[in-house]
């Protein structure tokens, strides 16, 4: 037992040292700060598809348009990870590629909500999405820098029941670990998140899926405004 505790203590200390360098990059923008009370807020859509400008990005844009329509003090921004260097998380690594640049945007105090989108591969999230979420260990080490930001998830699959909800739930599990406020799509669909069908690189014909995306965007914005103290 003593040997096991010693090993765990060593691994914990090693991980803290490695992550400290990444956490330092986001600390100035995030530590102890939340969205200004009563001021404008921003909702960020983060596409974790390796294909830039394709259906995951399109689905997120639907979410963001719906979020923006909630009120005049809601701003939106789409960030795509395609083409960025988001390496597989390695506690022993000395760098995190382009993750720090993305982290700095997400930890901006003005960002009150984040909608994360992923394509569905074998009923799960993309490897790019998994790599990003694992790199988010840095936020936990930085006093939970995403704490109380509202989060929603959208998944785009090649068939109607292709694992979209499984992918959403696995992403949500990681977001819960960041002390984020995780919400699903709002009424009337009101389930785990936005689930869309990609038919020939096109989501425009999926009326039900588009409705879930709109409901998710609206729901994230509504809750984010309440958390920020802006909603009436």
Task: Give structural attributes.
232 residues; 7 helices; six-stranded parallel sheet; Rossmann fold; disordered N terminus; globular; single chain; alpha/beta
What does this structure look like?
- With 232 residues, this protein is of the alpha/beta class.
- The protein has one domain (2-227): Flavodoxin domain (Rossmann fold, 3-Layer(aba) Sandwich), CATH 3.40.50.
- It has seven helices and six strands.
- Strands 1, 2, 3, 4, 5 and 6 form a six-stranded parallel beta sheet that branches.
- Helix 6 links the parallel strand 4 (150-157) and strand 5 (181-182).
- Helix 2 (55-68) crosses helix 7.
- The radius of gyration is 18 Å and the shape is globular.
SSE pattern, N- to C-terminal: HEHEHEHHEHEEH
Please state the average pLDDT score.
Answer: 88
Hey, roughly how much beta strand do the residues contain? 15-25%
**Major beta sheet, specifics?**
6 strands, parallel
**CATH architectural name:** 3-Layer(aba) Sandwich
The gyration radius over C-alpha positions equals 18 Å
Structural class label:
alpha/beta
Number of helices: 7
Percent in helix: 40-55%
In the predicted model, the low-confidence regions spanning at least 5 consecutive residues are 1-32
**Can you tell me the overall shape?**
globular
Total beta-strand segments: 6
Distance between the termini: 55 Å
What is the third-level CATH name, the topology?
Rossmann fold
> Which class in CATH terms?
Alpha Beta
Total domain units: 1
Q: Which superfamily, in CATH terms, is the homologous superfamily?
A: Flavodoxin domain
């Amino acid at each position: 037992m003593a040997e096991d505790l010693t090993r765990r203590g060593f691994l914990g200390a090693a991980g803290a040292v490695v992550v400290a360098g990444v956490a330092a990059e986001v600390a100035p923008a995030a530590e102890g700060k939340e969205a200004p009370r009563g001021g404008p807020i921003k909702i960020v859509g983060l596409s974790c598809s390796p294909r830039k400008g394709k259906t995951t990005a399109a689905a997120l844009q639907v979410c963001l348009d719906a979020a923006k329509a909630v009120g005049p003090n809601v701003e939106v921004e789409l960030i795509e990870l395609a083409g960025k260097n988001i390496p597989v998380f390695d506690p022993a690594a000395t760098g995190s590629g382009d993750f720090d640049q993305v982290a700095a945007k997400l930890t901006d105090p003005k960002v009150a909500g984040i909608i994360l989108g992923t394509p569905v591969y074998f009923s799960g999230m993309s490897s790019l999405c998994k790599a990003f979420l694992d790199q988010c260990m840095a936020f936990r080490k930085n006093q939970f820098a995403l704490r109380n930001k509202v989060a929603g998830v959208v998944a785009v699959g090649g068939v109607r029941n292709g694992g979209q909800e499984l992918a959403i739930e696995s992403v949500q599990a990681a977001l819960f670990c960041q002390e984020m406020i995780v919400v699903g799509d709002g009424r009337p669909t009101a389930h785990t998140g936005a689930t869309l069908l990609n038919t020939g690189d096109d989501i425009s014909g999926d009326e039900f899926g588009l409705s879930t995306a709109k409901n998710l965007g609206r729901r994230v914005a509504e809750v984010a405004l309440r958390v920020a103290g802006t909603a009436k």
